[in-house]
Task: structure prediction
Amino acid sequence: MKTRKGFTLVEILIVVVILGILAAIVIPQFTNASEEARLSSLKSNLQSIRAQLQLYKMKNDTFPPSATMETLMTRDPNNGGGVGAPYLYSIPTNPYTNSNNVVTWDAGGGAWEIDSDGSVTGIAGAFRAGDAAHQGL
Result:
């Protein structure tokens, strides 16, 4: 009697269907993990920047304006930076906009927004993410 080697078409189709079901279950889990990591990074960046803004305020009696925030917060005081700078090595990148520019509150187009004097929010030094979906953090 002759024996045949290999798999039948039905066996191969069953394996492909099982792999497809497993992929449909696993792939969304990776998507959620990626989004959670970006959100966690954003929250951490906001916490760090806000803490350093408060330190800057304590030493300089004012918050840095958006136009010069990067210079005042990240450079040596002898090179135009604020007293005690650098508070940050660099302005962190917003993981949702992939940029790190700071603009005035509600100006739009920035990774981060600051209300240095409280003229918009009533809270001097208010700082938030520039992308609309995460401004409430």
